[in-house]
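Before a colleague's protein record goes any further, I have to sign it off. My question to you is simply how this chain folds and whether the tokens agree. I do not need a full report, just your reasoning and any doubts. This is what I was given:
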Amino acid sequence: MKCYVVGGAVRDALLGRAVHDRDWVVVGSSPQAMLDAGFVAVGKDFPVFLHPQTHEEYALARTERKTAPGYHGFAVHAAPDVTLEQDLQRRDLTINAMAQDADGQVIDPYGGQADLQQRVLRHIGPAFAEDPVRILRLARFAARLTDFSVAPETLHLMQQMVASGEVDALVPERVWQELSRGLMEARPSRMLQVLRDCGALARLWPELDALWGVPQPPLHHPEVDCGVHTLMVVDMAARLDAPLPVRFAALCHDLGKGSTPPAEWPRHIAHEARSERLTRQAAQRLKVPTDCGELAVMVAREHTNIHRATELSAAALLRLIERCDAFRRRERFEQALLACEADARGRLGFDDAAYPSRPRLLKALAVLDAVDTAAVAADALARGVRGPGVGQALQRAREAALSAANV
């Protein structure tokens, strides 16, 4: 029995990056031998075990054979005679197909170290085309390894996979799993660009893909193209260290512009309502978590109003804050403001610009929080006001507070 560290841990160590998790491959062993050695079996589809002390994952060396379309259609063979090289050959990219032995020596049968030096994401062989998840994984690596490019032959293979319908076999849960991980990388725009370059974005998220080639007024959007703007916005959200719901909202805020009739370009009147509808549609289809979907819908509907917060009267500010349910959902409201800041700064030449709407709305919310609503209601009741009149009295008190504070 021989054990090797494999995959991402080897890759990241060679890149000088922090290694957080280690995966192991075991050559020359069997499930029973692993159990006899004290390992705990956890794998469902193939033999994977947890080390009795470190609890790191140890998988028996295995090969895979394609048996059906999609990413579940594989027959796995794990046996003591499977070699390390055979196990590594089934992996996706050369940079993920390296191993390290107990002496620290790197085993690199497929040129992973050379591709690390050349900063290239390259598939190992034709087996790459058997698993459509690998398209998503490669795109995610492009978002993480921001100075790497996709090998031309790998991009061509991915395009063939899309054309053959392999991507259509992906289930929404797996698509969202990879997309969400990629959104949290340093340059999420690179993931989306790779997906678009190979044609996968049009199949997985057509509402988003439709933004490319759609112009916007150059005075407000010097980058002009709606798709380019969206990539800039999601990268700005990453620069602001925004959480996942904000980054998803950044992608969705302008979806409605992709359905603006060309005769109305470059203006996009009432695109907010279309964006809201298309965001709901995409979030439902991709089975996006509730917190991400709800924030994205709200930002799609309200981002233009939030941008104009510095121009709004006290009454209009109050209505906006109420529509956003900010009194009850403060964290979500703050995330919406962050997504809108990413939108405003995700424009050519605006990346370091101030965004005064955010502080004004936060200040307005603080002023409104200080209003003694119980006292206002008690005073209204004491004056004989009942029913909707109590709510109206509270509205007037809040508007007066905003006006007095000169927010």
Residues 290-307 form the longest helix (18 residues). The chain has a mean pLDDT of 95. DSSP finds 19 helices and eleven strands in the chain. The longest strand covers residues 2-6.
